[in-house]
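seq:
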Amino acid sequence: MSGQADFAEEGTGDARTLRFTGNLLLAQLGGLPDRLGHVSGDVAAVDLSGIDRIDTIGAWIVHRFALQHRARIEGLSGDSHHLFEQVEKADQPVATLVAPQGGFSRVLGEVGDAVATAGSTLLGLLGFLGATTIAFWAVCFSILRWTGWFVTGRRGPEPQVRFRYNATVQRFEVVGVAALGIIGLMNFLIGIVIAQQGAVQLQQFGAEVFTINLVGRITLRELGVLMTAIMVAGRSGSAFAAQLGTMKLTEEIDAMRTIGVSPMEALVLPRVIACVVMMVLLSFYASVIAIIGGGLLCWTSLNIPPVTFIQRIQEVVPLTDLYIGLIKAPVFGALIAIIGCYQGMQVEGDAEQVGTRTTSAVVQSIFLVIVLDAFFAVFFEKIGWI
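struct:
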């Protein structure tokens, strides 16, 4: 039977059944929705065995009627049954706009979200540090087994060195050698600025000779390693996050795991080792360049000859200042590399995540470097290295 959609009631009381006929199509519904709205009382079942065709609109009307009257739907064919399943899945409450919060509540919520994000990031970094440490010891043991210094007592395949020598050397060049120019120029200018500003103030008291003390101590102890760490975070930390993030998107890291290669050993460890080693060398190099810049300004503006400048530096700058800078440098390097690699490994979804994670890597690296520098300042003051 075909034609206009219609229905008829069969039975009485709570056992009533609505039997539909015709085509439950949008063009042939007519006044069916209004007539269904006037059906009162309970309906036990809705029989659709007599319909010829049905579309989404018809299925939706029948579904809403059955849901309202708590009736079961009978007589569905294969396609109609699948259509009703999709309609039931789509019958979800529509999200409504939340009333705008007050200024204080909104700010409090944003602060709470920031604290929760910071806490989860800190936990993630601690876990990533643990994974990096495990990978480092695994590589060390493979080297010891290969050299014969460590024997497990179990027979097995010939030990192989798992240290990625070529990848690490290539990271040395990218992190260290390629950064010599920009770090040298920046610290040279910083040395000049420190000497110039210090000389202007000290000349008021006739103590411009103490500009040498200022340049020597502040560059070796603080600014040399701190400015180098900021530059390495901007150059290498961001590069680590972008590289690993792109590899994560292109599923290269998953492919490495599939063929049995550890991404921690092949990708993360070479970057961490290169950053730790090169931060020590770059920090010393930056301090020397900054002292040269300060000495040049003292020579040209204060008429302090280079020989006097060098002699004064040797007298007033204790070796503990150099030790402090060299102690902080590897810690900053490890922090920058771990944060950059961790953020890169967290990329998922789309290319926008690469930019977001790269930005987070740089911001978090610089922030934590400054926090650690403050901690080191208090610590070394407490143990008497002032």
